[in-house]
Amino acid sequence: MSWRDLRCGEPRGDHVGRTLTLAGWTARRRDHGGLVFVDLRDHTGVTQLVVNPERSAVAAEIAKEIRNEFVLRATGALVARSPETVNPSMPTGDVELHVDELEIVSRSTPLPFQLDEDNVDEVLRLRYRWLDLRTERMQRNLRTRATVVAAIRRSMEEQGFVDVWTPGLTLGTPEGARDFLVPVRLQPGSFFALAQSPQLFKQALMIGGFDRYYQIATCWRDEDLRADRQFEFRQLDLELAFATREDVLDVLERVVAASFESIGREPPELPFPRLSYEEAMLRYGSDKPDLRFELEIQDGTGVTRGSEFGVFAGASCVRFLVVPKAFSRGELANLEEFAKEWGAKGLAYLVHDESGATRSPVAKFLSPAELEAFAAPPGSTTLFVADERRVVERVLGALRLHLGRELGLVDDEREAFHWILDFPLFQLDEDTGRWTFVHHPFTGPLEGHEDLIESDPASALSQHYDLIWNGWELGSGSIRIHRSDVQEQVFRAMGMDDEEAKAKFGWFLNALQMGAPPHGGFALGLDRFVALLAGEPNIREVIAFPKVASGADPLTGAPAKARGEQLDELGIRVIVPEP
Ligand code: ASP
Fold it and tell me: Is 522 in the pocket of ligand 1 (CB under 6 A)?
C-alpha cells in the first residue's frame, strides 16, 4: 500500500485515465445534494475530488463526515473535466479525481481560524502554528528560507570555507547585549552564558590554522524584541585569515548574489557601493541609509558662521535638506512637530514657491551669501536643523526617511545594497561615561590610527564595516586585532584593568601571543535577510516557531517557572521582584 501516487498539486491532463491515490488535507468541502466536492490540498496545490454516491455509496457516506483540515486518502479515476467546469486559475483545473475509495485518515476539531482568512491575530496564528504553517504564505516563506540557506552554503563551500560548529554554552561574549545565563547542576553557582555570537571561537579557529571558516550559527542575546530582532537568531558567521577588507566584502557580495539567483531573482549589481561612516552621517544622517532615493543632507555650518540669525550663529552645526515640494504652513507645523520628537529645538525653513517668491520668517536675517548657498528651485523647501552635530544628524536623518516615504520618493523597484566603512572605534557610554566599543572590542583600528586608541579615542577609526540593504542593516564585520598588545590597549581604553581583561579574556590574549595570523570576518543576519528577500514585514514570518514581543512563545507557553526540585538541584533560590 502507498499513501499517495502523486502530490495534490501534480495531477495533469497527461494522467487522465489513470487510477490514482491522493492524500492531503481538506481545504474545502461542498455538498451539492448528494454529490460532494472536496478540494484536497498539500503544499504543492489542490486537486478536486468528486464523490458520487452512484459511483461509490460507501465513499459518499464517509464524505458526509468530512470537515475542513481532515486528512483524507482517496483512490479513484483521474478524469478530464467537462469544458464548462474547467478552472483555468488552478494548475490542476482541467482534471478531477472521481473517487472509488475514501478514507478519513485523521480528523480535526473545529478550527480556531480558517486557513484562507485574512488578518488573523498574530498570537492566535502562533498559538496554532501547526495550522498556520499549512498556509501558502508560510509554506512559501520557509521553503524560500531553505533554498536561500542552501545557496549560501553552496557559495561558501565553493569559496573554500569549512563549516565548523562552535559551542552555544560558553563564557560571555561581548556583542553589546545581555547574556542568557544557564545554571550548571554539577557546579552550583556557576553559569554558562549562551553565545551572543561565535566571535572568539572563530578567531581561535584562525589562530588554529583554519583560514576560511563559516557556520550557520545560532546566537542568543537578551535584548528588547523588535520587528527585526528576537532572543535567538541565526546568522551566516564567517572568518578569513590573511584577508584584506576587500576580500571579506567580496565573499559577502557573492553570497548575496547567489541568494538572489537561488530564488530566481536578478542579483543586485556588484560590487556594492562603499561609503564611509562619516560621509553617510553627513549626507544621509544615518549609518544605515536607504539609498533608494536621492534626497541628501547638505552642510551649511561654514556659511552660517557669524549669521544675523542667532539660531544659526549659536549652533555648532547647521545642516539642511532641499525637499522637492513647497510646503504649506500646516505641513511645516507637522514637520516641526516631527523634528521635535527626534530632539530638535525647532525647524527653520525657506519655502521657494512656484512663483519664485520665498516664504520664511528667517529669510530677512540671512545674508546674500547665505541666501545664495540655500537657493533652491521653485516648488521646493529648504529645511534646517541647527544644533550639536549628533542631534542634527539624527533629526535630519529621520526627516529624510520620513519625507522620502511621504512624498513617494523611494523607488520600490530598486534594490540598494551598499557598504558602510570606517566606523569610529569607540563611542561614549552615556551611563558609565566610559569609552565603549561601537562593534565589539576585537575590531582592529584603521591603519595609522593605533596610537589614537590611547591619545584620542574619540578620533580613532576602525576597520568595522556594515552591509546595508534598502536602509536595513544586514550584518557587521571587521578586520580584527591580531596583536595581544593592541588588544590589551583597547581593553584599557575601555576602562578595563589588566586583571579584569585577564579574567574575562585571558585565554584569548594567550592565544593571540602564539602566532595569530591577520584575520577578519562578518556575520549576516539570516532572519532579516530572508524576510526582505521574501518581501515580509517582519522576521517572525520567516521563522517557523518565533516568539512574540514579550519574549514568550505562544505555542509552548515558554518561558515557564521551574519546579522546586529542579531549582534545589541547581542551588538556585528565586526572588520574584515586587510588582
Ligand atoms: N560577531 C559579530 C556579530 O555577531 C560579527 C563579526 O564581527 O564577525 O555581529
Answer: yes
